[in-house]
Amino acid sequence: MRSVVITGVSSGIGHGCAEALAQRGYRVFGSVRKTQDAERLKAALGETFVPLVFDVTDAAAVNHAAAEVASLVGEEGLAGLVNNAGISQPGPLAVQPAAIVRQHLEVNVMGVVHAVQAFLPLLRRAKPAGRIVNMSSLSGRIAFPFVGAYAASKHALEALSDSLRRELLIYGVDVIVIEPGAIDTPIWDKAGHVGTTFEDSDWGPVLSGFNPADTRRAALPVSAVAERVIAALEHRRPRTRYALPDQPLKYWIAPRLLPDRWLDRIVDRVLNYRKLRDRLAERGAPRQS
Fold it and tell me: Which of 150, 171, 251, 273 is catalytic?
């Protein structure tokens, strides 16, 4: 039985990947932060699922979990490490609390570093060597408004993955990046708060019109991501990156081909920033005597 570790499996993409790999006969070690989630997932996914309770930002806890996994897999090692755990809290960077921005980097970047350093010896032990799959995003290549903290963390993950892949050539451990666009997960149930959280900011009128349901309707199913993860783990020569744009022309092809200033003008027009500028000008205009 081949074994994999997946971080952040309590719901969404991580849960879908854990379920798909368990069904393919893998022994799945999945990380959660709450004991009740561990018990729930164990009951749902069966004997091939082994829960690990830790937070990826806690290096000591990640190392402890790696020792637990090592005692179970022995010389077989790990076929894969899927770094899925992450957060996304949208908001305008100019007014978003610095602690929230920092948390994105701690979870989405340093969490991956902790997991790679802890589980790498087990990936090296496998024959053939195991693979690392890092869950990035289209935002790791293209940064749109109001997801700056998330995009920054995913841009960092893209660079980290490239350096890591080239460093680990000496061990035969490959590193593959998955870049999903909008995926139909429960995260959209929590996304509506951005309009109320920043309603008093200069971007309030734009954010108040954001409707997560509109994005969710066009989102891809979790199974699409799970298929790419399986490909990354099993294909003889996997790609270094698997992009999954939900609307390829709008959010992937055109933004990568257009000059930056052109894309800026499109964003300006789509978000009706002219109306915001007029509103700000009126607010800042000197009073007439």
Answer: 150
